Amino acid sequence: MKYLVLINPSSHGGRAARVWRGIQPLLQDAEWYVLKSIEEARELARMATGYETIVACGGDGTINAVADGVMANADEKLSFGVIYAGTSPDFCRFHGIPTEPKAAIELLEHGVVREVPVLMANGRCFFCSCNVGMGADVAAAANRLRPWLGDKLGTFLALMRSLLRGQRWDFTVGNECISQCNHLLFTRMPYIASGLKLALPTLKDDEYAMWFVRNQSFWNWMKMLTKIYRGESCGELRVCRGTQVVACTRPVKLEYDGDPHGTLPVEISLALRRLRLIATPIKEASHA
Description:
Layout: E1 3-7, H1 15-23, E2 30-34, H2 39-47, E3 53-58, H3 60-72, E4 79-84, H4 90-95, H5 101-110, E5 112-116, E6 119-121, E7 124-126, E8 129-133, H6 134-149, H7 151-165, E9 169-173, E10 176-187, E11 191-193, E12 196-197, E13 208-214, H8 218-230, E14 236-240, E15 244-248, E16 253-256, E17 259-263, E18 266-270, E19 275-279
Parallel strand pairs: 1-2, 1-3, 3-4
Antiparallel strand pairs: 5-19, 6-7, 6-18, 8-10, 8-16, 9-10, 9-15, 10-13, 11-12, 13-14, 15-18, 16-17
């Protein structure tokens, strides 16, 4: 078999299962497996043998789990593809992967393999952004609201809830103290959630961004949000290389790619291996 497609039937209120039923006859030379839980996605991708490409059918959480398994697979020639069926297609938008299922299958069969640098948090890969503190709270609330309110409204209301709580933390990042921090994240792509976009510089393959906001009141946040939705410069930005360790003197939640992943401390680094992603050529991919 050329493809192993791992389907998360619960993605986007069951959309992945409906997508799978509609497109299963269209992808030739594929084996399809419906996941019983998101937890088994990584292990199945890690242990898979005899395939050229492992495909995630689901949202960002499914993409993260399956791609992390591909990165851990012994076959370094194994490629990764996406049939999107989630709520916030940040990964697909950045890499030029269509979210329409038939177009995604066309890309799987005729796209190019790009070797994509990947970030890690405590030894596990993530593929969008890793958020510390407020981001974890927003992600948890947004995941509860999106099935009822949709992607953008659910995320917006979750964000408003967290801003009203007004929590701040004193972080240490390496030798730097970032006091009274409202929000801190690490990423290699500008899209961070449901229309929110950072103004990032062009990053080299061995670089990644640390973005944070500190000492902001609720009303200052509201002004800043208009800039973030427009992709305009705001907050503070560091371009990082190597490993960064983030710690705090009190418990702080951690999330990446939309799902919770424990608490601080966290070690952020670039993976030694790159993800062999099936995507559009770089000149055709939309990073706007």
